[in-house]
Amino acid sequence: MSLATSPAPGRVVVAITGATGAVYGQRLLQRLKAAGRETHLVVSPAGVLNAHHELGLDRKALEALAHTAYNPADVGAAIASGSFPVESMVVAPCSMKTLASIAHGLSDNLISRAADVTLKERRRLVLLARETPYNLAHLRNMTAVTEMGGIVFPPLPAFYHRPATLDDVVDDSVERVLALLGVTEAQPKAWAGL
């Protein structure tokens, strides 16, 4: 791998799509900032609608949480090229439409293009897939992304640490994702055994 395409330590692409669970994207941006990471954000139009409905946030409020923000239609943005070094990418939450686009390499917007670049450069891609129940197309798309090296991470709550609030549930998933991204400051609650 050439120096120009080597991952930039601490640079993470975050995408927020139209699935429910905008809080995961918001919390990831907050935690990545606290951990000193440089975040590059893309929010789909449906992601903005969900963030407004679920969190009362508009596009500007979401973009203020990131170092750099991009228009999802800007397929010429820096993160659309493998020559722009990043460490990893996370889509939180990831709609089934976005999952399908990534699984089939459509690159029809900046989110799916950046994910395609992440996979082709063999960088870490984590998708917080939000849907239930799954149909066969969902499962096949998850398999395809997994076979390409991506990680499908439905944010399912763990109850062994006895979460007391919804924030506890969200934070548990976020810390696990941060650990998957290689963020050393991540604090996932580990199972200590009985």
Task: Give the arrangement of secondary structure elements.
Elements: E1 11-16, H1 22-34, E2 38-43, H2 45-55, H3 59-63, E3 68-70, E4 88-94, H4 96-103, H5 110-120, E5 124-129, H6 136-147, E6 151-152, H7 166-180
Parallel strand pairs: 1-2, 1-4, 2-3, 4-5, 5-6
Helix pairs in contact: 1-7, 4-5, 4-6
Offer a few descriptive terms.
flavoprotein; UbiX-like; alpha/beta; prenyltransferase; six-stranded parallel sheet; single chain; 15% strand; globular; 7 helices; 194 residues; Rossmann fold; Flavoprotein
Structure, explained:
Strand 1, helix 1 (22-34) and strand 2 form a beta-alpha-beta unit. The protein is globular. Helix 1 (22-34) crosses helix 7 (166-180), helix 4 crosses helix 5 and helix 4 crosses helix 6 (136-147). It has one domain (3-180): Rossmann fold (3-Layer(aba) Sandwich), CATH 3.40.50. It is α/β, with parallel strands linked by helices. The chain contains seven helices and six strands, in the order βαβααββααβαβα. It has helices at 22-34, 45-55, 59-63, 96-103, 110-120, 136-147, 166-180; strands spanning 11-16, 38-43, 68-70, 88-94, 124-129, 151-152.
Tally the structural domains.
1
Indicate the overall shape.
globular
The largest sheet is: 6 strands, parallel
The CATH class is identified as Alpha Beta
- What's the average pLDDT? 94
Relative helix content: 25-40%
- What is the tally of beta strands? 6
Tell me the strand order in the biggest sheet.
3-2-1-4-5-6
Tell me the span between the first and last alpha carbons. Answer: 45 Å
Using the 3D structure, state the CATH architecture.
Answer: 3-Layer(aba) Sandwich
Structural class assignment: alpha/beta
Q: Enumerate how many helices there are, as a single number.
A: 7
Taken as a percent bin, the fraction of beta residues is 15-25%
Order of helices and strands: EHEHHEEHHEHEH
What oligomeric state do the depicted chains represent?
single chain
Classified in CATH, the superfamily is: Flavin prenyltransferase-like
- Poorly predicted segments: none
C-alpha-based Rg, rounded: 16 Å
Output the CATH topology.
Answer: Rossmann fold
EC number: 2.5.1.129
Domain Flavoprotein: 11-172
Binding site for FMN: 18-20, 44, 95-98, 130
Keywords: Flavoprotein, FMN, Prenyltransferase, Transferase
